[in-house]
Structure formats: C-alpha cells, structure tokens
Amino acid sequence: MRLKWWSDRGRVASLAIIVLVAFGATACSAEFPPQEPLANVCSLLKGDEVATIAPGNDGGKAAGEETMPDFWVRSCDYTTPDFHYASLAVDGASDGDGGNILKEFFNAVGVDGTKESVDGVGDEAIFWDDGVETGVTAKAKGYLVTFTALLDPPPPKSALIPLTKKAIARLP
Hints:
The longest helix has 15 residues, at 8-22. Helix content is 26%, strand content 30%. The chain is built from 4 helices and 7 strands; from the N terminus they run H-H-E-E-E-H-E-E-E-E-H. It starts with 7 loop residues before the first helix and ends with a helix. The chain has a single domain, classed as Protein Transport Mog1p, Chain A (3-Layer(aba) Sandwich). A 7-stranded antiparallel β-sheet has the order 1-2-3-7-6-5-4. By secondary structure, it is of the alpha+beta class.
C-alpha cells in the first residue's frame, strides 16, 4: 500500500481505512503486531533481480515513507527507461488499530479485478490484476508486503511470486 497509488484500488483501500479509523477499529491483530518501520525497503530486492520483469530498471529508489498514527508504509520503485515500473511496498502496524487496518486492506486488495490465492508465499498471499497493475500481496512476518508491476506487457503471476518471496525472505 503506497500513497502514490491513489488509483481506483487505492481509493477503495483508503476509504476502508478512513472508515475504520473514523469509527475506531479496536482490538489487536495478531497477524500484524506493532513493529518499527523498516529503514530501507529497497535493500529487500536488488535491481538486477527485478530486471527479470523490468529490464533496464534504475536499481530501485525509495518511493515514500508514510507514517500514519496507526500504521506505516515504506516503498521502493524500480523504474524502467520508458517510465513503467515495479514497486515493492512494506506496511506495518504501529498499534492494534493499525493491525486491523492492514487486515482490512489485505481483504480489499483485488476486489476490482482478478484475485486468487497463492500458496507458499508468506503466511497468506493473493495474486491480483486490476487491469492496470498486477501484483502479489502477502501477509508475512507481521508485515503486509506488496510487489506490484505496471509494465507492458504485464508480467505473469509466475514471475511476480519469486520476487515477492525473495523480499519476504530478507525481512527482519
């Protein structure tokens, strides 16, 4: 989840977050315990690894650090010369409400397109394709990890899964 992604998918997820915050989501989510923000998301995937789907990418550049009262987001974009990109975002909870927000976001991912469960990636994962971007979103090690691609042609699920798994393996 990144604030840059203020697309249809982002607006739906943001609406869900706003509703949860406005009405006071409570209770701690064991899936997303409070964690400190990651210092460097770009270190989780090397540019040459991402080059398998985004040849000629810039090696990865920090794309944003958002810290909300209940959760945080850190992301890295791997931009190609033709301005397409792949992106890795890691979200974490700052408190129990943030854990619930991340859980709701995970449930909302892919509702406007293709959404299918993926085995063997983190604790639980989905592949999604909203017609603009494709991606894999996973719950892993107490984080929400999303690897997204806006590439032409879109990479297949079989290309996104190994990259998501590599990023998860490198999480603290």
